[in-house]
Amino acid sequence: MIILIAGDTHTGKTNLAQKLLEHYKIPYVSIDHLKMGLIRSGNTGLTPESDDDTLTEKLWPVVREMIKTCIENNQSLIVEGCYIPWDWKKDFTEEEGKSISYLCLIFSRAYLEKNFNLIRKHENVIEQRQCYELALEDMISCNERNFQNCLEYHLGHIDIDDKYEVFPQAVASIEKQLKEGSDFKARRNSL
Q1: Out of 50, 77, 133, 146, which residue is the most buried by the measure of CB atoms under 10 Å away?
Q2: What architecture (CATH level 2) is domain 2-181?
Q3: pLDDT under 50 in the chain at which residues?
């Protein structure tokens, strides 16, 4: 079982990955950790300030091959981060796709407007983040764009609109997607 968790900053990707690790007893990897390992090792021209498209272009091939290796070895892995391309399905065969579940965490505009300070309060629940200016309008724009991309690419998503109750929805969505794994080809070809 491979679980991909995407979403904008502060949506709770790492926290969800940790909870899924505890629930399913399978490890997770943060693409941010891979990014920082490459940057700090000096083995890449990337920087923490590199734009998301550049980071995705460089990191996704490594992450994709890690996923394929896990599938080949019948191992499970949770991968979380914002550097998963929207068209990721094209990189996997129908058989590989049967093992993959994808979730994108999306805040609604109403949730962000009502809970922005609460989101900031919980930003270090798993990781110790370097503080930077987080703009409400930027988060609204990015989450709305992510929602549209999920619709366009037929990707699983969890809409956070009223209460932040992601875990039960995530488990239900993962199990549903894995049951419907034989539908991966149809979902992939609809891109």
Answers
A1: 146
A2: 3-Layer(aba) Sandwich (3.40)
A3: 129, 190-191
